[in-house]
């Protein structure tokens, strides 16, 4: 049991690091699962690799709570209305009065944009979830996606060198931008792609700055990863053994703690650097995965 829990800690660290860096958390977990071998059922391991992300989600909630929580008390109400066309009568007037007193409307708008970004994953992801699990969770696909997206990061950064971004603030992201980012997120259903990598690449391609694309990616992770985790739990069921429950809880807690540090590191890093280092890392790791596959190690 001790060895299993030690392996779980390692996997939690891997998840916490790779979930937010654009290097594919699922791809890394597949590789480490092959190497470490938890010695648990295939169905549990498949569920664990997704649900462990709940810990990483909580790190986003904790760090960005003040930017995301849409409600406030009447004591914190703004002195001026938040609406460009104030109404004083009827249902519109009543709603605006209530909103000014208790709601940050800019955050409500942000959540509406996040919902728009999630829609493509709901339409495409749910129907293909089982097929993806059965056919694409293997080292060959992971290595290919690691290398392809590594090359894309390098090419896109070279193309955008010395270009000024069109959008440098989260509030400037339009609903159209949100939809396009959501479409790019669907690419991450293929293991080895990286959810954060796909959405960051998509954001940069449509004109978002690196920091804006990364921060929006963190926000988008909350409903996306929560939905994926609920889907996996529903499929697996809630009849855990004591060891399974301990492994799932420990992995999630470790991924939460590690994610706190990684998110802060990434945001500080990309204020001064581009993503090319992650592109090179992906290429090197992809080659290593190919060699391990040839050697029969994974």
Summarize the structure in words.
By secondary structure, the chain is mainly alpha-helical. It has helices at residues 2-18, 25-36, 42-51, 53-63, 65-68, 90-102, 105-135, 139-159, 175-186, 195-205, 210-236, 242-270, 276-295. Helix content is 73%, strand content 0%. Helix 8 (139-159) packs parallel to helix 10 (195-205).
Order of helices and strands: HHHHHHHHHHHHH
Provide the structure class.
mainly alpha
Q: Mean of the pLDDT scores?
A: 88
Query: What coarse outline follows from CA principal-axis ratios?
Result: globular
DSSP E strands, number: 0
> What's the story with the biggest beta sheet?
none
Distance between the termini: 23 Å
**Beta-strand percent range:** under 5%
What would you report as the Rg, rounded to the nearest angstrom? 21 Å
Would you spell out the secondary-structure blueprint of this structure?
Blueprint: H1 2-18, H2 25-36, H3 42-51, H4 53-63, H5 65-68, H6 90-102, H7 105-135, H8 139-159, H9 175-186, H10 195-205, H11 210-236, H12 242-270, H13 276-295
Summarize the structure.
This protein has 298 residues and is mainly alpha-helical. Helices cover 73% and strands 0% of the residues. The protein has one domain (2-74, 87-295).
Give descriptors for this structure:
298 residues, mainly alpha, 13 helices, 73% helix, globular
């Amino acid at each position: 049991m001790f060895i299993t829990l030690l392996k779980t800690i390692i996997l939690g660290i891997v998840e916490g690091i790779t979930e937010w860096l654009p290097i594919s958390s699922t791809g890394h977990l597949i590789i480490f699962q092959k190497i470490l071998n938890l010695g648990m059922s295939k169905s549990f391991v498949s569920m664990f690799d997704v649900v462990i992300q709940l810990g990483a989600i909580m790190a986003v909630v904790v760090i960005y709570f003040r930017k995301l929580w849409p409600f406030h008390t009447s004591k914190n109400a703004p002195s001026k209305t938040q609406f460009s066309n104030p109404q004083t009568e009827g249902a519109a007037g009543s709603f605006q009065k209530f909103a000014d007193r208790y709601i940050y409307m800019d955050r409500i708008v942000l959540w509406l944009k996040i919902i728009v970004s999630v829609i493509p994953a709901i339409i495409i992801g749910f129907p293909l979830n089982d097929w993806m699990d059965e056919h694409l969770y293997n080292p060959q696909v992971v290595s290919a996606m690691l290398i392809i997206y590594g090359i894309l990061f390098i090419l896109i950064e070279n193309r955008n060198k010395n270009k000024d971004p069109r959008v440098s603030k989260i509030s400037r992201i339009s609903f159209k931008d949100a939809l396009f980012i959501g479409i790019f997120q669907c690419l991450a259903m293929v293991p080895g792609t990286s959810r954060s990598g796909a959405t960051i690449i998509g954001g940069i391609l449509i004109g978002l700055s690196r920091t804006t694309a990364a921060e929006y990616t963190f926000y988008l992770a909350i409903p996306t990863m929560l939905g994926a985790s609920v889907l996996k739990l529903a499929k697996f069921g809630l009849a855990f053994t004591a060891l399974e429950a301990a492994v799932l809880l420990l992995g999630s807690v470790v991924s939460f703690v590690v994610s706190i540090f990684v998110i802060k590191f990434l945001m500080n890093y990309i204020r001064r650097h581009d993503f090319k280092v992650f592109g090179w890392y992906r290429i090197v790791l992809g080659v290593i995965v190919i060699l391990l596959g040839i050697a029969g190690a994974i």
